[in-house]
């Protein structure tokens, strides 16, 4: 009888890939985790209990076949493990790096609930796909037949690229339009290299381009010199809107316009551009560099975590993060908070900015006046509402303040002169669940521009679903023509 390769969670403790020491990783933007060795990956995968009802899979937005590829990894069948993982996930090596597994698959692992420590799903996923790239198992896109239909995708983020991948594999002619000079959206210019090294994203971009996806980069749809939305619609049989959300939520506190108060998206984009070797005058002048400054970041999400950890690596003299609720109620990944604390970031819980302090006669920020908070009664959602503690204000000194309060949708109907494009009261594009069709015929929308600021994995799911809906539409149209 064959030896049982799984269910080793009782005898084998949970173990992550080796994490670089905090003092070393503060000095660069390389990823902080190493790779599993083949034997260690197999050991950790073998901890899976092979649940009859795999909660890890049901809580993954892509419903990845996690128990199946864990078992294949435990058995040493890595190529098969990769084939299974990529059936449902366009970019498994990216999700393995940046998904908040502690809130999704790993957070719902059954053996975690029983006190044995979750399976390290994300680390194994990353290992399997990185191995696939190294071994040449990741094949170029090669459609079995070309199709006549054409799709224009506006936005080269994860949703747009996931749709482009599926459509191109089916033989559809795909053009991706994006305002930036590199594809990838926030994966390229928003997420820092210590979470997602840029060659990982560029490698996927090259695969799509070599597979026949056409990229129109530096193309800000609707802007002067760029095609209008109406022109793009006229060029293609269908259009997918995958622009993401880039409009920063503002804070109306006095002094918010002072020099040194910067937006998170500008700050992170400048840092990532420097990692590519680009000329970034705003960084070189010190405007978007934390070097030698006391830095305060306002916000408690994953973007705030990216900002504080970037500031540490840029040589800030101190980095503090203000959040109006407590640690248990913050929206960001607890794993990221722990990494930030190891690297020297100080979190100031139950605190909110009241105003920005400037030097007399100058316009530069020198501090943040902070209101101390307490958690009051729950609101309609059950979440406790922060309340100001009167008379407990104080000033945090700072030469740079980064606003990481989240993102909102741009006014696309106005920007594109398309009043027929329906939006919600939040400004996000209204699209049907499942098919992602909008009110405009042949126009689809996916990712953050529909959901609001969300996760990369949800954008990938949306992009794949929209691509499937488009293919259904094309097939139905072709069948109709054939019947005539």
- The CATH class label of the largest domain is Alpha Beta
Fraction in helix: 25-40%
> Biggest sheet, strands in spatial order?
3-2-1-4-16
Overall morphology? globular
Tell how many strands the DSSP assignment holds.
16
Number of domains: 3
Architecture of the largest domain in CATH? 3-Layer(bba) Sandwich
Task: Extract low-pLDDT stretches.
Answer: none
Query: Major sheet: size, sense and barrel closure?
Result: 5 strands, parallel
User: CATH fold name of the largest domain, please?
Assistant: FAD/NAD(P)-binding domain
Alpha plus pi helix count: 19
What does the average pLDDT come to?
94
CATH superfamily of the largest domain: FAD/NAD(P)-binding domain
Portion in beta strands: 15-25%
The computed structural class is alpha/beta
Radius of gyration, Cα only, in angstroms?
Answer: 24 Å
- What is the CA-CA span between the terminal residues? 60 Å
Descriptive labels:
single chain, 484 residues, alpha/beta, Fumarate Reductase Iron-sulfur Protein, Chain B, domain 2, FAD/NAD(P)-binding domain, 3 domains, 5-stranded parallel β-sheet, 16 strands, 35% helix, iron, Helical_ferredxn
Describe what you observe in this structure.
- The protein is of the alpha/beta class and 484 residues long.
- The chain contains 19 helices and 16 strands.
- It has helices at 22-25, 38-45, 55-58, 66-74, 78-88, 92-98, 110-113, 121-135, 158-169, 186-189, 198-210, 229-235, 264-275, 281-284, 302-313, 334-342, 412-415, 448-451, 456-483, and strands at residues 150-154, 173-178, 214-217, 238-241, 247-248, 261-263, 294-298, 318-323, 346-349, 351-358, 365-378, 384-388, 394-397, 400-403, 407-408, 443-445.
- Strands 3-2-1-4-16 form a five-stranded parallel sheet, with helices on both faces. Strands 6-14-7-8-9 form a five-stranded parallel sheet.
- Helix 9 (158-169) links the parallel strand 1 and strand 2 (173-178).
- The mean pLDDT is 94.
- This is Glutamate synthase (NADPH) small subunit.
- Keywords: 4Fe-4S, Iron, Iron-sulfur, Metal-binding, Oxidoreductase.
- Residues 151-463 form the FAD/NAD(P)-binding domain.
- One of its GO terms (molecular function) is 4 iron, 4 sulfur cluster binding.
